[in-house]
Amino acid sequence: MSHPGELLSAFLDGELVAGERRQVMSHLAECAECRAELADLDAARSAVRSLPMLDPPLELSAFEVPVAPRPAVGLTWARAGAAAAAAVVAVAVGLAAFGSDPATPAVDLGSVIDQHAARVSVDPGLTSVRLVSVVNQP
Amino acid sequence: MADEIPTWEEVARRHGRRIYNFAYRLCGNPDDAADLAQEVLIRVQRGLTSYRPGSFEGWLWRITRNAFLDQVRYRKRRATSPLPDDDRLGHAIAPSPDEVLASVRLGEDVQAALLKLPYDFREAVVLCDVVGLTYDEIAEAVDIPVGTVRSRIHRGRKLLKEMLG
């Protein structure tokens, strides 16, 4: 066969049917140029595959779990407290959703919830503003 | 799995990290990647009500890459936060040997080379070698023939090799 060209990448990926694979292998046995090209392709492939898998930021996971109906514009303190509780649950659920990948260290949900609960008690005004932004997500 | 409709929480748990990494490797920026991943999850949440059991990977990654392209177009219109086609390699300050070693360890040289690829090649390479999709799944996600997937991955890898030496 002529030089297999782009079949070489598919060969590396195991994406050729049996007949194509046999043809490529017999060509490689005779063609040093294509063996060198295959080595280059393998190096590029390995470079990308060895990139580390990155963990998404925590605020991403905490942001997007729908937990509560849209509150009225004027929050009473009681409703702000309920929203605060809902948001703590949202953070916990969101973190659990993203943190349970076996390759990722487990997130200490208790301390995260404690931190958020602490903010509720220390600064209810600030927290209720944050909560409006959380629970208003579509 | 192929016969069941997953819940949003299952999608986030099983695929959230890959979605984030797909976005990060395409744009090279954690903030943009987080925005994109969030947008994808919102779309998944909306789309799950109309999803019918089938190729979930193809469905999910079609949503993901469309959300990514929408974000790129949106930001280009607003001309605020430059995304993939921007040259992020123009900082010609010589790094120290330690910085070079750290860069190699973190894959920054590979990331920089990825960002220099034409978008179509970069997308195909990332879907294959970062996300781990088969050629058939990439073809479905990107809506192109499998032969085009093969060609894009091959040309992308050749260019990467040229850049990385």
Name a few traits of the molecule:
heterodimer, A: mainly alpha, 7 helices, 67% helix, disordered C terminus, B: mainly alpha, 8 helices, 0% strand
Beta-strand residue fraction of chain A:
under 5%
Mean pLDDT of chain B: 83
Overall spatial form of chain A: elongated
Counted by DSSP, the helix tally of chain B is 8
Distance between the termini of chain A: 57 Å
Give the H and E element order of chain A: HHHHHHH
Number of strands of chain A: 0
Shape of chain B: globular
What structural category arises from helix and sheet content of chain B? mainly alpha
Number of DSSP-assigned strands of chain B: 0
State the low-pLDDT regions of chain A, or none: 62-80, 88-96, 98-138
Distance between the termini of chain B: 42 Å
Hey, which two chains have the biggest interface?
A-B, 41 and 39 residues
Sketch the major β-sheet of chain A: none
Structural class estimated from helices and strands of chain A: mainly alpha
Helix content class of chain A: 55-70%
**Low-pLDDT runs of chain B:** 86-92
Binned, the helix content of chain B reads over 70%
Radius of gyration of chain B: 17 Å
Instruction: Specify the number of helices of chain A.
Output: 7
> What is the H/E order of chain B?
HHHHHHHH
SSE arrangement:
The complex is a heterodimer of chains A (138) and B (165).
Chain A: H1 7-12, H2 18-30, H3 32-49, H4 58-63, H5 77-99, H6 109-122, H7 124-135
Helix pairs in contact in A: 5-6, 5-7, 6-7
Chain B: H1 8-27, H2 30-47, H3 56-78, H4 97-106, H5 108-116, H6 119-131, H7 135-142, H8 146-164
Helix pairs in contact in B: 1-2, 1-6, 2-3, 3-7, 6-8, 7-8
Characterise this structure.
The complex is a heterodimer of chains A (138) and B (165). With 138 residues, chain A is mainly α. Chain A contains seven helices and no strands. The longest helix of chain A is centred in the middle third of the chain and has 23 residues, at 77-99. Chain B has 165 residues and is an all-alpha fold. In chain B, 73% of the residues lie in helices and 0% in strands. Chain B is globular, with a radius of gyration of 17 Å. The interface between A and B is large, with 41 and 39 residues.
